[in-house]
Amino acid sequence: MSKKLVDIIMGSDSDLAVMQDSALALEKFDVGYELTISSAHRHPSKTSEIAQNAAVQGKKVIIAGAGGAAHLPGVIASMTSLPVIGVPIFTSSVGGVDSLYSIVQMPRGMPVATVAINGAFNAGLLAVQILALHDDNLFQKYRNYRIELAEGVESKDRKLKEKGFRRYLEEN
Ligand code: RP5
Fold first, then answer.
1. How do residues 8-17 score in pLDDT, each as one tens digit?
2. Were 62 and a residue from 7, 108, 121, 150 both cysteine, which residue would form a disulfide, CB within 3.0 to 4.6 Å?
3. Residue 89: CB within 6 Å of ligand 1?
């Protein structure tokens, strides 16, 4: 795989089923990444080491996913100047709203770009967009991806008009 430009960090292995989507998004664009389990609460020293070493290792963006009292992305943001994208993980207790508020409500001066609850794929895409600012080839790949999305909508709309809604629903 190409150079590891993105750190994907999650608070627990129970986040992996969601956080794999960030890896899948990056792989779609041949962007190298490193996946790590760490925890702001259970292993603060490891979290601090990762955050402080990321830029030195050549990482350009950090994606951090956590659930509940989800301090991981904010704590990482406090220890690196790299852009941090936070992924609030769905929780069975309150549906991930706890994670969302913990991550999105960062104090002035310390931003974490927060995606939707379980929005790990979009976190990967946002990382691609950031990297593409300085990579024309990647920028073109990302533009092509957007064109494919639009074509997908056109094709569904053509099918709906051709078949009518009843057959469309039966067949999908
Ligand atoms: C958070 O606590 C993790 O990010 C995870 O979403 C949540 C629960 O962790 P486990 O108890 O499943 O390890 O730190």
1. 999 999 999 9
2. 7
3. yes
